[in-house]
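Methods, example record. To illustrate the input and output format used throughout this study, we show the complete record for AraC-like DNA-binding protein. The sequence lines were provided to the predictor; the line carrying structure tokens was produced by it.
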Amino acid sequence: MQRELHDDHLLLYCTAGQGRLDYEGRRVPVSAGDVVVLPAGQAHSYASDHQRPWTVYWVHYAGLLSDTMTDWLAAKGGPVHRLGLNARLLALFDAQFGLRDQGSNWDAALHACHQLQFLLSHIAQMLGQAADSAGRLDIARIKGLMMAHIHDHIDLAALAEDAALSKYHFAKLFKAQTGQSPIHYFIELKMQQACYLLDTSRQPIKQVALNLGYEDAYYFSRLFKKVMGVSPARYRTGLHNI
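The corresponding predicted structure is encoded as:
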């Protein structure tokens, strides 16, 4: 989608996959949990990623009261806000769109306006809470991103980019909050998933390794033993409990 000039505001919430937003000569990645607020008149274009297409909620709106709120939201660090997947926010979007089933009568339209006002104010509240926790990483969000890549790979650069930080600053904050480096934390998540697969399936160890993005089963076994203290084969037999 590309718009040089539009006369209403746009609110977009990405709930899965990823894409990108272009505005004012800048390209910003958009991924699951991101809220995009574009004021009226802001030239922009956006697109879904071909490899991991996004799922998005969006709503166009206008009105005198909405102008001030939208300008305030857009001024909070640009149009893309990394608020994460939030159950309350998802419920508010669902409730907003559920009003379509009531038809195009005046009562439904009035209800939709108030519902939208509540939705925007909730986003403003979330941004305020995020500002209060500035200087701290959202570990739950980072873990969610890691789990999304549990079957393949993700590097430090991608994790730092998602947090809008340099690799050095991201790694330093992450270790300060968790006591581990980001990559070691990711490897431990992978080994936890490996334990689950070894416990609940009859897959060969080579297949378990492939399921977790390791083409070299011997390397996977060495890594598993380093983290768990026993080899995958010994873990599966239960000898690790002796």
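Annotations derived from this record:
The chain has ten helices and eight strands.
Strands lie at 2-3, 9-16, 18-23, 26-31, 34-38, 44-48, 55-61, 80-82.
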